[in-house]
Amino acid sequence: MDSLLKKLNCFYEKLDLYLQSSKKDCGVCGECCKVTSVLRVYPLEMENIGRRINNRVKMKRFRDFTGNDLIDIWGGTSGHCPFQEGDLCGIYAFRPYQCRVYGHYDYKGRSLPVRCVYRGHAVRYDSREELPLYDEFSNLTEGYDETVREVAGLNKNPPSG
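^ Flagellin N-methylase, sequence as received from the core. Prediction below:
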């Protein structure tokens, strides 16, 4: 498990370097954490966040907020991500994959808030597979799912006979 989390954080570093090629810098308005549609957070990322914050109350709020593995920020009952502190991200260093690519990439060309500095400059995409380094990220998350199944004993073949 720890090796997968280490690989995830190395992947995040690689992704951040890839995204630095964008000619825009975030305007730190915090709108993306208030007025977004749907943001996927994978179980491996939840595990990573949970281990990093070491705060059960905040983690429970985040899990409740996400409801399974999708965060419905825009239109959600709380109105913003529980890790948002003012206009800043309280988990910025270990924020999920989709938080990292948001702004640089715009789902179907219509998901960026009006005040976003990336609006009009983002790469439009129609499926997750078009996002940067997505295959590598997907392999990591599948590796986590496999590890969890093994630990739970769900990958073992039932005894025959």
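The chain is about 40% helix and 10% strand.
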